[in-house]
Amino acid sequence: MSDFLSHLECGNCGEGHDAEMLQSVCQRCGGPLLARYRTGDPRLPGLEDILSRPPGQFRFQEMLPHRSPPLTLGEGGTPMWKATAIQGNPWIKDEAQNPTGSFKARGMAVALPRNLELGAGRFCLPSNGNAGGAAAAYGALYDVRVEVAVPAGTPRALIEESRELGATVTIVEGTIADAAARQREELSDHGWFSLATLHEPYRVEGKKMMGYEIFWDLGHLPDVVIYPTGGGTGLVGMLKAFDEMEALGWIGSDRPRMVAAQIEGCSPIVAAFGSGADRAVPWAEAAETSAYGLRVPYTIGDQLMLTGLRRTGGIAISVHEHETIDATRMIATRAGIWGSPEGGAGLAAHLKLLEAGWIAPDDEVVLFNTGSALKYLDGPTTQHRAGATPSAHPVTGDVDSSSERA
Ligand SMILES: *Cc1c(COP(=O)(O)O)cnc(C)c1O
Predict the structure, then answer these.
(1) What residues does ligand 1 touch, defined as CB less than 6 Å away?
(2) Res 381 pLDDT > 60
(3) How far is the CA of 230 from the centre of ligand 1 (A)?
(4) Mean pLDDT confidence for 114-136
(5) C or N: which end of the chain has fewer Cβ atoms within 10 Å?
């Protein structure tokens, strides 16, 4: 519990902030605030004690911010399988098995109750769909109002889910950035607390648990972790988890090489990484993609991600839409997981990096299926699938041949 929470610190400029007050972004520079814990406290349980607890998001609750135990819908503790029929035998952590079918539940399960206990009363967020559904679920659990703004073209299941769970949904022309701008004017400037990505400190705290779980699942850290990156909460969260694990004395200074996978039509982090910049430039025209969660033209997590990727010897890489769709299908036909296109983008990045020799055949690689395919049934993935005859486009896993088609 928050016995061990010490303060908040800006991830960009280092400015300290009070963790017992409701906070959004850094008051000095507008950067994302990160929770800091007293990792040297002798009352903290050891690794063995933690592993003897049941798995799940709240297994290591001392590294989470709440004063009182949060309610849960059963987040985290997701299974991780080795995909032996896929080149390089990557592990796939199946985050679709979270409540509301995506890992967005991890963040919301922590952020909504924590901000509620600090005095927030009603919540708003822009979303490409999954974050809205997750926020709606915890809004229902805690009986508080949630307003979601989604870009036009968001698949119907994602919108219906938020509505059925009791949230109000507004559809906005443009991208998630336009939805965010609209909400700032209409809601967050008028007493609604924004749960927008990295605009409050605690969604990261939920998502960082993926970093702890990878370590617990394997008994060590892998060589490479590939993350389909939108706003970057998960990447920032896992980097933070590894730093905490080092401070706790569980690991040394070695890190997995962290990879941010984005799609070609919207890859601000890849562009900044390639140019050596430490900040990303907002992506001017975010292309339509089946991987909705990756259609994020701008995030305030850019600096943390770019620093983290470089510090771990990692990389940012973009994949083409049809590579994403082929890889999504490969996860289904070769790993038995009918997953989201964002997860497919991660596998497409893996195949490209393997081909390029950046990943060695014996490197241990962790991928994620970040969401459930069921939510995307009326999205472009299925339209592409309907238009593509599988026999004409066999899934070979050969990145070169897949980029020649179309
Ligand atoms: C939000 C989302 C992502 C991207 O996660 P971030 O941590 O925001 O970068 C990937 N996949 C799915 C299914 C998502 O909903």
Answers:
(1) 102, 104, 130, 197, 228-234, 293, 340, 342, 370-371
(2) no
(3) 6
(4) 96
(5) C
Pocket test for ligand 1, best of 94, 103, 207, 289 (most atoms within 8 A of CB): 103
Q: Which atom of ligand 1 is nearest to the CA of 232?
A: 9
SS3 content of the chain, % helix, strand, coil (to 5): 40, 15, 45
pLDDT in tens, 45-71: 999 999 999 999 999 999 999 998 899
Q: What is the mean pLDDT of residues 11-40?
A: 98
Give this prediction's pTM. 0.92
Backbone angles phi and psi of 168, in degrees to 5? -95, 135
Which residues in 48-195 belong to E strands, given as ranges?
80-82, 91-94, 123-126, 146-151, 168-172, 193-194
**Residue 141 Cα to ligand 1 middle (Å):** 22
**Which residue, by CA, sits nearest to atom 3 of ligand 1?**
293
Output the residue whose Cα is nearest ligand 1's atom 10: 293
How many angstroms separate the CA atoms of 383 and 330, rounded? 17
- For residue 309, name the pLDDT band (cuts at 50, 70, 90): very high
Give the integer Cα–Cα distance in Å for 308 and 315. 10
170: burial class by Cβ within 10 Å (0-12, 13-18, 19+)? middle
Give the pLDDT confidence score for residue 402 in this predicted structure.
35
Neighbours of 314 (CB within 10 A): 24
Cβ proximity of 283 and 266 under 8 Å: yes
